[in-house]
Amino acid sequence: MTSLFKTIVFNNPRIISHVFKRSFTVAELKPYETLAVSVPKPYVYHVELNRPKKSNAFTRVMWQEIGECFTALSNTADCRVIVLSGQGKNFTGGIDIQSLVQLASEADDLPDVARKARFHSNFIKYAQDTITSLEVCVKPVLSVVHSACVGAGVDLITAADMRYCTEDAWFSVREVDVGLAADVGTLQRLPKVVGNTSIARELCFTGRKFTAQEAKEIGLVSKVFPDKDTAMNTVMDIAVNIASKSPIAVQTTKINLVYSQSRPNQDGLEHIRLLNAVMNQGEDLPKSAIAQATKGPPPEFDNV
Ligand SMILES: CC/C=C\C=C\CC(=O)SCCNC(=O)CCNC(=O)[C@H](O)C(C)(C)COP(=O)(O)OP(=O)(O)OC[C@H]1O[C@@H](n2cnc3c(N)ncnc32)[C@H](O)[C@@H]1OP(=O)(O)O
C-alpha cells in the first residue's frame, strides 16, 4: 500500500468499505445503445441483444457494452440470475461484417506489420474478454437462442452457464467461411460443452448450419421449445427457482464449476474446500438447512 493510500484508508474506514462493497442497482446500470436490460422478476435480470434491424450483429459498441454489462451485473447485489436473449428476428448474425472491414482497414493504415499485429491482438483480446465476462460473472447466465446464432453468437452462448433454444433456432461456427479461425472462445469452450471433440471439430472445420434438434442431440442446448414465448416463460421459471436459493450457495457453485472445468479434480476439490471453509460459516447454510429440515417456507436471503 502506498503511504497516501494507507493514510486515506486508515483515517476513513468507510472509504475502504465503499471500495470493496461496491455494488450497483438497476437504476445505476448505464443505458446501453445495443442492449436492453430489465428486471422482469425479483432478482432476475434480463439482458437482450438489441440491434434487431441488424440481426443483433456485434459492433464495437456491442462488444464493449456486453463486457461492461456482465461485469456490472456480477457486482449488482440484487441480481442473482441473468437471462440472455436477442430481440427481433434472429438471436445474432455474429460479428458485424462492416465493423470487421473497418477494423481491417484501420490496421492497414498502420505503418508496419508489428504495429498492425498489435492492433489486431488488442482487438481480439478485447473481444475475448467480452465473451469471458459471462463466465467470470458470478451470477448464473441462462441463454435463450431463437432463429440464427452465428459466429460470435456461438462464442457467446458457450460462455453462458445454460443454453436453451426454440425449434426454429439454428447455429453455425461460421468463422471459417469468413476466412477466420474462431478466436474468442468457441474453439476452447464448444468441445468441452458438447463433450465430443469429433463433432465439435466437424462443426468448427465446416462452419455448417446445424439445427436446434442437432444442438440438443450433441448437448449444446438443454432443451428445445416450440416458440420464443414458451422458451422465455420456461427459462424465466428456471431463473426464478435459482434466484430463490441461497445466493452464496449458487454463486460459490458457479465459481467452483468455472474454476474446475479445465483443472484436475483434485484442484477443484481443494478450491471448493477452501471456499466453503469460509462460506459455510455464513447465515445462508443454517437458514436453508432449518427450512429444509422443518419443511418451513423458503427462507429470505440477503443479497450479495
Ligand atoms: C475478433 C473477432 C471476434 C469475433 C469474430 C466472430 C466471427 C463471426 O461472427 S463469423 C460470422 C459473421 N456473420 C455472418 O457471416 C452472418 C451474415 N449474415 C447472415 O448470414 C444473415 O444475415 C443471417 C444472420 C442468417 C440473417 O438472415 P435473415 O434472417 O434472412 O436476415 P437478413 O435480412 O439477412 O438480415 C437482416 C439485417 O441484418 C444484417 N446483418 C445480419 N448479419 C449481419 C452481420 N454479421 N453483419 C452486419 N449486418 C448483418 C443484414 O445485412 C440485414 O441488414 P439490412 O440493412 O436489412 O440489409
From TrEMBL:
A GO MF term: delta(3,5)-delta(2,4)-dienoyl-CoA isomerase activity
Compartments reported by the entry: Peroxisome
Catalyzed chemical reaction(s)? (3E,5Z)-octadienoyl-CoA = (2E,4E)-octadienoyl-CoA; (3E,5Z,8Z,11Z,14Z)-eicosapentaenoyl-CoA = (2E,4E,8Z,11Z,14Z)-eicosapentaenoyl-CoA
Q: Quick check: keyword Aminoacyl-tRNA synthetase in the entry? A: no
Q: Which UniProt keywords apply?
A: Acetylation, Fatty acid metabolism, Isomerase, Lipid metabolism, Peroxisome
Please give the superkingdom of this protein's source. Eukaryota
Where mainly located?
A: other
One Gene Ontology BP term is: fatty acid beta-oxidation
The UniProt entry's GO CC annotations, sorted and at most eight, read:
mitochondrion; peroxisome
- Determine if Mitochondrion is one of this entry's keywords: no
Pathway(s) served: Lipid metabolism; fatty acid beta-oxidation
Q: Which InterPro entries does the record cross-reference, listed alphabetically?
A: ClpP/crotonase-like_dom_sf, Ech1-like, Enoyl-CoA_hydra/iso, Enoyl-CoA_hydra_C
Stated family: Belongs to the enoyl-CoA hydratase/isomerase family.
Question: Function of this protein?
Answer: Isomerization of 3-trans,5-cis-dienoyl-CoA to 2-trans,4-trans-dienoyl-CoA.
User: What's the protein called, per UniProt?
Assistant: Delta(3,5)-Delta(2,4)-dienoyl-CoA isomerase, mitochondrial
Q: Which organism is it from?
A: Trichoplusia ni (Cabbage looper)
Encoding gene (name)? LOC113505567
